[in-house]
Amino acid sequence: MTDQALRTTLAYFEAWTGGDFDKAMTYVSPDITCDAPAGRLQGAEAFRAFMGPFAGMLRSAGLRAAYGDDSTALLMYDTETALVAHAPGAERHTVHDGLITHVQIIFDRLPFEEARRGADQAR
Amino acid sequence: MTDQALRTTLAYFEAWTGGDFDKAMTYVSPDITCDAPAGRLQGAEAFRAFMGPFAGMLRSAGLRAAYGDDSTALLMYDTETALVAHAPGAERHTVHDGLITHVQIIFDRLPFEEARRGADQAR
Hints:
The structure is a homodimer. Chain A has a single domain, classed as Roll (Nuclear Transport Factor 2, Chain: A), CATH 3.10.450.50. The first copy, chain A, is built from four helices and six strands. Chain A has a six-stranded mixed sheet with strand order 2-1-6-5-4-3, with helices on one face. The longest helix of chain A is centred in the N-terminal third of the chain and has 14 residues. Chains A and B meet through strand 3, strand 4, strand 5 and strand 6 of A and strand 3, strand 4, strand 5 and strand 6 of B. Chains A, B: It holds the Pfam family SnoaL_2. Chains A, B: It comes from Kribbella amoyensis. Chains A, B: This is SnoaL-like protein.
């Protein structure tokens, strides 16, 4: 057993939290499936449309824990974003041949919804 | 390096998802700190007041991934609850001497808030 999946996942994580989302996408399979809080996303472009804007409003990120083996990786991190000060997340990745083919991502949408609601009311 | 933390975490998980929340609490330190989406909880009674009601409305649960070492464990799971059909969660545990001393738990509060809002409107 190797940690091949974990290495791919960490390279992806370091790229997007380091501000290079295009590099992050080089670790993502064109046929990725992503199970996000709002539902299932299919394909790299849908994944980019979901994660790209989040990466774009990132102020800082810190890895809390990361484990994996040759096919699966699991990580938890904290983020600070322009919209929400404290937005931790967890992701489970399936990796084949150095590409992430499946992501399950968990985060709390409530503070993002509340921030948007507040912005709408302030208009 | 052993997997002592992971074994404690899995025993806790199996107890609460198996309907025995009192047994689950035997793996929890009296001085536990829990970082939950709504903020920090301090002590076993606050933790019980938070997790107990969730465990009580659980219909089914499935472990998606679990990793750990001698001091830390990380797991992701799906749940089906009476309030929300699909409510996945992720937890990072710190374990000392067979007791969980810190939990960071991530889940999406939005569907729970929406379900409660719907129930309020139906009154």
